[in-house]
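Hi everyone,

Forwarding the result from last night's run.
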Amino acid sequence: MARTILGADAFYDAGDVGCGGPALGDSVGILERLPAGQALEIRSRERAGRESLRALCRLRGYPIEAEDAGPDGDRILVRKA
């Protein structure tokens, strides 16, 4: 089972579908439920939707604190402001 490697409070695996579409909605839903100051790590093996995630984070004021490319997929750490 996958887990956080960036020290996040929560983890979401977007799998092969990327960060767009339903995964984008799932990620936002998780972030909305987190207390302010906590972070979500999102793992994706597909680059699709990455810019949509970045744009949504900018609009909502959620800073992206880290991005890591690894053998099991890329990971993005987003902090809820």
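The two ends are 28 Å apart (CA to CA).

Cheers,
N.
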